[in-house]
Amino acid sequence: MQPWQWSAHAAATAVARGELRSETLVASCLERIALREPQLQAWAHLDAAAALDQARARDREPRRGPLHGIPIGVKDVIRTADHPTTFNSPIYAGHRPNEDAHAVAVLRASGAVILGKTQTLEFACGGAFPPTRNPWDLERTPGGSSSGSGAAVADGMVPLALGTQTGGSTIRPAAFCGVHGMKPTWGRIPWDGAKGYSPALDTVGLYGRSAADLRLMLQAYALAGGDDPPAPGLGQLRLGVVRTPHWAEAEPQAQAAFERTLALLRQRGVHLAELDWPDGCEAINRWQDEVMQDGGRYAFVPERLSHPALLHAEFKAKLDNHLGLTPQRMRDALDGIARCRMAFERSMEGLHGALGLSAPGVAPLGLHTQGMATFNRMWTALQVPCISLPALWSDAGLPMGLQLIGRRYDDALLLAVAETLDGVLVDPGRRPWN
Predict the structure, then answer these.
(1) Active-site residue flag, 169
(2) Structural contact between residues 65 and 110, judged by C-beta atoms closer than 8 angstroms
(3) Which secondary structure element, helix H or strand E, spans residue 13, and what is its range?
(4) Residue of 357, 42, 33 lying closest to 168 (CA atoms)
(5) Beta carbons of 123 and 109 less than 8 angstroms apart
(6) What end-to-end distance do the CA atoms of the chain give, in Å?
(7) 141, 134 in Cβ contact below 8 A?
(8) What gap in Å lies between CA 215 and CA 221, rounded to an integer?
(9) Is the preceding peptide bond at 145 cis, omega within 30 degrees of 0?
């Protein structure tokens, strides 16, 4: 097995023991990128020489933390001091920020190697689509808007990556690309230095190839540590089942795979409880969209004033209030979401988490779509942590994600549950290159 094939956890363990040099790992990832990037097109910017310089520096210095020497990709809406940050917009072609975003600064201070910038939908919310393809089927979308991050981790180009989520932009690519993705509790990783869209929703997302990989990143962000709750055993695990009001919109093969997984968990002793969707919360996806689009009305005012000819028509429509939002509609949306947040968390009392779909089915054909965020919007609105596991598969062998949902600030508990489920539901050898 080549180093590019290793999980972040395996690579980090080898680096810590002195059995693997960061330079060797980064060089292996760069070789994989050179081979696959012409087909996959996951990267917006890559500086191989700078990445190797970072790796050599990590090899010379004392170990800083669990991510020391591990290469990481960064979505191109998150600012980096040593790489261009262009937001996939002609307005920012060649733009170089003078400092790292908070999410990147933490990783760099932890000894990670910032490998490069991954492709994104324009401004992570609309406009120009990225050229990135799905590593399981190059004719399909990898999902968005964290397209390059999900595809690069899935294809072995980099073991970890950062994404973002305002609707479904971390969990959906994780589902379509067959990797582990996490949207932490809103606000737990500060948004400073990332291009914003909707302040009440914008969340930094994480990608890896196992729940243990995600733990490395949560440790770096001080969201996981030695005093975390232990991973519950299968016989002690209590999970809710959340189909949401949109269950009928899921593909039959996704529904069937979900039911088979529930049956397997019951056989292994997991207690499952069907959770009714809270009364009065049927409109939460619409409310989420209204809050999101209202943010878009103001997020791109500087670009419109400075470069109106270079701003995509979709953003101009947002600025023109294409949904006809009014102050009362915004109050109704925010108040409705707040009521649903409290109702959902009450329904989770006594449970370790809840299970649902990460996406309606497999990745759609074509690069003109990012897929639907049907099973993501509500969780982003509720600001709760979510983890997508590559545990559901179509008959044709394409990934469909199983989503694990928790209460706000239960990120560490949710990760422990994911680690337990990984051992039962996830085949670590099931990769696009195998």
Answers:
(1) yes
(2) yes
(3) helix 8-16
(4) 357
(5) no
(6) 11
(7) yes
(8) 10
(9) yes
Catalytic residue among 22, 75, 195, 198: 75
Structure token digits, residue 16: 């810590």
**Mean pLDDT, contiguous 10-residue spans, the chain (434 residues):** 97 98 98 98 98 98 96 98 96 96 98 98 95 98 98 98 98 98 98 96 98 97 84 92 97 98 98 96 98 95 94 87 96 98 97 98 97 98 98 97 97 96 96 96
Widest distance between CA atoms in the chain: 61
**What is this structure's pTM?**
0.98
Residue 340 backbone dihedrals phi, psi, to 5 degrees = -70, -35
Residue tagged active-site, from 22, 169, 198, 210 = 169
394 contacts 361 by C-beta, under 8 angstroms:
yes
The alpha carbon dihedral of 388, 79, 198, 362 has a sign of negative
Question: What are the phi and psi torsion angles at 306 (to 5°)?
Answer: -90, -40
Q: In the prediction, which pLDDT does 315 show?
A: 84
Domains, the chain: 3-236+350-425 (3.90.1300.10)
| Residue 149 among the catalytic residues | no
Of the CA atoms within 13 Å of residue 20, those in its CB half-sphere come to 22
Q: Per the structure block, which two tokens stand in for 366?
A: 């074509």
Query: What pLDDT score was predicted for residue 201?
Result: 98
From the candidates 110, 145, 146, 358, which is the catalytic residue?
Answer: 145
Task: Name the packing angle between helices 284-299 and 327-347 (round to 10°).
Answer: 130
> Which amino acid is present at 179?
V
Q: In whole angstroms, give the CA distance from residue 391 to residue 177.
A: 12
CB neighbourhood size of 250 (10 A): 23
DSSP structure class, residue 143 = -
Tokens 């707040």: give the residue.
Answer: 338
Tokens, residue 404: 């694990």
Q: What angle do CA 270, 378, 180 make, to 5 degrees?
A: 55
**DSSP classification of residue 278:** P
